[in-house]
Structures are given as structure tokens and as C-alpha cells.
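To: structure desk
From: M.T.
Subject: fold request, one chain
Message: Could you run this one when you get a chance? Sequence is below, nothing fancy, just the single chain.
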Amino acid sequence: MYNELLPVVDENDCVIDTLPRHYVHARSLRHRAVHILVFNDQNQLFLQKRSLLKDLNAGLWDTSAAGHVDAGEDYNSCALREIEEELGIKVDGLEPLFKLPATAAVGMEFIQAYRCRHNGPFTLAPEEIETGDWFSEHDLSARIAADDQTLTETFKTIWRHYRLSS
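Reply: Done. C-alpha cells follow.
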């Protein structure tokens, strides 16, 4: 994980270099990520609680699945890979929602957000995820309005944008 190569991108999300993950993060260089929101038939959102082994946001609640776009990979193939790696599921298709610009608030990542529907069960990747649970949209919005510190800042940003755009 720490030696993975990431595409470094410019302000227009065009690849300008490929560097190791730790170097990209240490220097706050622009790079790419995906975040997937998995809803069940009751319209609840599945959140993952990040493993305590993670170097960033350890132990915090985050989107259903997420990850960096690797060198030579596009957003869509990355999203399908991440949902399978982290949740142990295959989905026929993911609905692209929106793309957030790379800012300091989201770790200098251009984030492509997706949505899909799945009721589980999931096989959680233990090196990535401590646990997971379903949450209602109302409860999540209330927690974000209260600036719940157990949620990642990136998830809060994605949720606010999702609520405005849906």
C-alpha cells in the first residue's frame, strides 16, 4: 500500500507525473481518488469504520468504499476494484455522481463520487476496515451538521455535496 504509484495531476486533473504514494501525500501533491456510496433497499448508507492500522483517518467513519486511483488506471475501473477489495462485492455498474476538485480540505485529491445499491452481506477487508454499519440519511445529516468528529472530513464534504445535488 505504501509503495503504490499514484498519478500526480495538475489543476485540470491531467497527469503530469507518477510518484510513490508516501511522496505524494508528504508533499500534498494533487492526485486522484474514488469514493463509493452504497445504499440498501431501505435507503440507508453503509459506512466503513477505517482500520486503526490506516495512516490517515484511522478509526474514523468514512464512505462505503474508497481508494486512490493507481498509475495507469481510470476512475471507473478503480471504483469497481475498490468496492470488490474493500467490501468483497461485485456490482454491475456504479452511477457516477459528481467530481470534487482537489483542495486541502480533501487531501489534494480529485474525488470522483459514485453511488450503487446493495444489501450486503459484505466481506470487509480487515487491513482496511475495522467494522461497518448502515445509517439513515437523516441521522448522517444531523451528525454532519453537529460536526461529528468520528466522521472523516472527506466524507462530510462528499455528503454535503451529495445532499445538495440530490
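Reply (cont.): The helical segments are 21-26, 75-87, 137-145, 153-165. Let me know if you need anything else for the meeting.
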